[in-house]
């Protein structure tokens, strides 16, 4: 049995993960070196411990049959939600959010591990209902499943972590065969909500001039009129669809009216609940030099570090932005900036290649999974991995807002590293079971 398992063990996936974790340890060590060449941090030692135990977790999960998890998944989901509530009430504050549980210096972030439970539970539900429920019901129930942990994490408040649930949901519902128009409804609604939230900030803080359409978003009365108008159009189109069932135009008018109306309502509440520092992150994403010494400092220094790396980099342990402490959150959010400065374009492309190999292997696992439950698990993990990669790398390059999302396998942190490696273990379990193990 063991020899058979080794025969089908995914060595490519395994070695890609080991290489990325090694890169992570090396540059977490580099982030602890000051301008005098003295190591002032022990984070790399903790990362080595987390990485070593994470490898054991990954291998242990890969040996288990993921199909046996189905009997425990509902209980795990309920338990995870209870832990999130407990964290909100009694957790410790870290970076403005009550999102950690622990004793003394030891702590975990439950919202990270909840991603795994969410993937398993949504996969379980989509697998059980593929032949017994109508697609619209499956979609809305799946949406409700997503909003439960997402809402609890937003209440902490941890906006960055909560956003990860969206790509997981989109990837899994797509693979489950949910009609694309339903998935686009959520995607377009989310994008328009962000747009309607950002535009007033752009007008007041960047443009410093009034735009007629944006004025409708900043004036409460005009916004209410716009909401009422789009909502009325949607209701009238829905009535037309009821009386003229074969007229597709009424359907699409209702569809887009609901998206716009919902985005207008959600963006209003988003504007009310955004913290000052989150508003500033949006402002400096649009224009980092709007506050170069404050909120824009992170992006400016990160782009400077990346640009100074050139083709081959300054050399390991020779990055000036890093060792002179110009970069904030060096070992976590901006670990890629250190790597880029010290290894240059070639180092970046090496890391990119390792991530793309993981993505390709995951797509291969999705295509060859022996059942839909395994396909759903792999799809959710792919959505999570791709989102973390794109947002973190985009953030340090200045093409994404700063959200505090780590670069999986590289960034310092036990909870995110263990979560990622448990997910890889699940991928290996799904992959090997297609051979009947």
Task: Please describe what this structure looks like.
- The protein is mostly helical and 437 residues long.
- The protein has one domain.
- Helices cover 72% and strands 3% of the residues.
- The chain has 18 helices and three strands.
- The chain has helices at 2-7, 11-31, 43-63, 73-90, 110-128, 135-154, 159-163, 165-175, 180-207, 212-218, 220-243, 248-273, 276-286, 297-308, 320-323, 335-368, 372-397, 414-433; strands spanning 92-94, 97-103, 106-108.
- A hairpin with a 2-residue loop joins strand 1 and strand 2.
- Helix 4 runs parallel beside helix 6, helix 5 runs antiparallel to helix 6 and helix 5 packs parallel to helix 8 (165-175).
- The longest helix is centred in the last third of the chain and has 34 residues, at 335-368.
- It is globular and about 75 Å long.
- The model has no long low-confidence stretch (mean pLDDT 87).
Write a short abstract of this structure.
The chain has helices at residues 2-7, 11-31, 43-63, 73-90, 110-128, 135-154, 159-163, 165-175, 180-207, 212-218, 220-243, 248-273, 276-286, 297-308, 320-323, 335-368, 372-397, 414-433, and strands at residues 92-94, 97-103, 106-108. By secondary structure, it is mainly alpha-helical.
Nearest-integer average pLDDT: 87
Figure out the total of helices: 18
For the record, the count of structural domains works out to 1
The stretches of 5 or more residues where confidence is low (pLDDT under 50) are: none
Q: What is the string of SSEs from the N terminus onward? A: HHHHEEEHHHHHHHHHHHHHH
Number of strands: 3
Secondary structural class: mainly alpha
Distance between the amino and carboxyl termini:
8 Å
Trace the largest sheet across and list its strands: 1-2-3
Largest sheet: 3 strands, antiparallel
- Gross morphology is globular
Helix content: over 70%
């Amino acid at each position: 049995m063991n020899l058979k398992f080794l025969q089908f063990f995914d060595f490519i996936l395994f070695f890609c993960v080991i290489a990325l974790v090694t890169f992570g340890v090396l540059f977490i060590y580099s982030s602890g070196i000051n301008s005098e060449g003295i190591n002032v941090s022990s984070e790399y030692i903790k990362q080595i411990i987390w990485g070593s135990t994470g490898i054991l977790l990954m291998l242990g999960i890969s040996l288990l049959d993921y199909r046996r998890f189905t009997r425990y998944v509902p209980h795990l989901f309920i338990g995870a939600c209870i832990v999130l509530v407990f964290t909100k009430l009694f957790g410790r504050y870290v970076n403005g959010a009550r999102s950690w549980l622990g004793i003394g210096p030891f702590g975990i972030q439950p919202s990270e591990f909840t991603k795994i439970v969410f993937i398993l539970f949504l996969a379980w539900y989509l697998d059980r209902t593929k032949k017994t429920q109508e697609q619209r019901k499956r979609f809305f129930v799946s949406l409700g499943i997503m909003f439960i942990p997402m809402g609890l994490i937003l209440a902490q408040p941890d906006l960055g972590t909560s956003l990860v649930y969206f790509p997981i949901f989109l990837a899994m519902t797509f693979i489950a065969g949910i009609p694309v128009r339903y998935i686009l409804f959520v995607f377009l609604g989310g994008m328009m909500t962000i747009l309607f939230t950002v535009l007033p900030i752009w007008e007041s803080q960047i443009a410093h001039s009034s735009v007629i359409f944006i004025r409708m978003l900043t004036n409460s009365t005009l916004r209410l009129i716009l909401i009422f108008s789009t909502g009325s159009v949607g209701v009238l189109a829905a009535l037309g669809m009821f009386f003229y069932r074969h007229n597709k135009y009424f359907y699409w008018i209702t569809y887009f009216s609901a998206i716009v109306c919902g985005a207008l309502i959600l963006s209003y509440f988003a504007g009310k609940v955004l913290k000052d520092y989150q508003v500033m992150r949006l402002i400096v994403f649009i224009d980092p030099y709007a506050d170069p010494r404050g909120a824009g400092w992170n992006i400016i220094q990160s782009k400077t570090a990346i640009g100074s790396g050139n083709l081959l980099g300054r050399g390991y342990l020779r990055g000036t932005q890093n060792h002179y402490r110009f970069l904030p959150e060096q070992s976590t959010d901006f670990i890629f900036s250190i790597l880029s400065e010290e290894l240059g374009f070639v180092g970046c492309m090496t890391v990119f290649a390792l991530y793309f190999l993981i993505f390709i292997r995951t797509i291969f696992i999705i295509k060859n999974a022996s059942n839909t439950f395994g396909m759903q698990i792999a799809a959710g993990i792919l959505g999570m991995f791709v989102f973390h990669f794109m947002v973190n790398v985009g953030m340090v390059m200045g093409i994404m807002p700063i959200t505090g999302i780590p670069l999986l396998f590289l960034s310092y942190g036990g909870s995110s590293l263990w979560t990622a490696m448990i997910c890889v273990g699940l991928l290996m379990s799904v992959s090997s079971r297609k051979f009947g193990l």
